[in-house]
Design goal:
This protein is α/β, with parallel strands linked by helices. Helices cover 30% and strands 25% of the residues. The strands form 4 sheets. Strands 5, 6, 7, 8, 9, 16 and 17 form a 7-stranded mixed beta sheet that branches. It has a 6-stranded parallel beta sheet with strand order 12-11-10-13-14-15. A two-stranded parallel sheet has the order 1-2. Strand 3 and strand 4 form a beta hairpin. The chain is globular, with a radius of gyration of 21 Å. Bound molecules: NADPH dihydro-nicotinamide-adenine-dinucleotide phosphate (NDP).
Amino acid sequence: VIAIKAGKGRAIHGSPVRNTIMPAWVIDKYGSNDVLRFNENVLFPIIHYPNEVIIQVHAASVNPIDVNMRNGYGSASLNMTRDPLHVKTAGSEFPLILGRDVSGIVMECGLAVQYFKPGDQVWAAVPPWKQGTFAEFVVASANEVSLKPKSLSHTEAASLPYVTLTAWAALVNSCGLKKETCPGKRVLIFGASGGVGTAATQLLKAWGAHVTVVCSGEAQTLMNDLGADDIIDYTTGRLQDQLKTRDLFDVVLDNVGGTSEELALQYLKPWSGASYCTLVTPFLYNTDRLGIADGMMRSGITLGSKVVKHLCKGIHYRWGFFTPSGPALDEIGEIVDAGKMRPVVEKVFPFSDVPQAFEKIEAGHARGKTVIEVI
Ligand code: NDP
């Protein structure tokens, strides 16, 4: 018999006492920072599928996508994923909990979960169509979850999953890089001093690539510490003049977009399998603006035409997207525990200060990650 305890308090794994409500930061509509609302009475998450786990969130982190989602960005596509048959009424995603990263403790497992048990210390990045991690508990699929690296605290661990999996998706899935193929490869990273850039730089260095980073001069010490081989300060002098003095690259990871796309494509080795991958794509913007069908068609035409145009010049052109993956996090955890990758935590906020953490991300100029300590 499970005793149901209504009201505040924390459910402890293995305990027969369960909460029915929990505290969380929610939004009830899209908008600027004042839509963020602390609610102590959010319904406790429920396991819907046998492969899901409930995680007690110890720490989370804020990513630019949280600020964008708060503004309504991506809502057309994300709502279609949440409700593919369109049976729910408009606004059924609210109250919406933002937050993608979690480091915490498994509290409950679905019947098909074999790899985890209550009490395990885990980390994960939860995809944006699911309820997020700015809450005391979150539900994730077991295949999105991994055992937390032993060498990291929850606060440190929460800084890595979303950005590192995004870097992984771009570098491994889109550009075909891996441990075995990296040595000798020259990689150029635009926007290297933020969350994705600091993760990508360290992954590539752990795999033996030669890494050139583009960042502001003020981030040079950080990028040096992370092992960057060559640092280009985009705030002094013309970027193209600085790039011209370097050898051509095998891979470009673009975390900035805009003019950096046209520029970067000129500095790749043609006809050698070189790839350009940008994380700044119009995919969600197009579906928000044009609807799902027209938006996807527009994105398909844009991507297809760029792929063909650059293939004719001997360059692979790619769009990269965050991809949740427990197995990739397992490998990333091994790299971390081997001392080849470290969290870059710029600032830590208490759970009460989530809106201030959003303001920090919105102000830009990140140097690594902003973390929320939930417990
Ligand atoms: P951050 O805000 O953490 O980092 C961005 C970094 O870029 C900052 O350090 C900033 O510092 C630097 N920067 C800004 N302008 C330039 C420039 N012109 N040249 C070089 N560096 C610059 O963002 P993330 O790392 O988390 O994400 C990077 C981008 O990737 C974002 O646009 C994000 O939305 C996108 N993204 C896309 C995903 C996808 O699935 N497609 C997933 C994750 C992220 P400073 O301004 O001081 O130079």
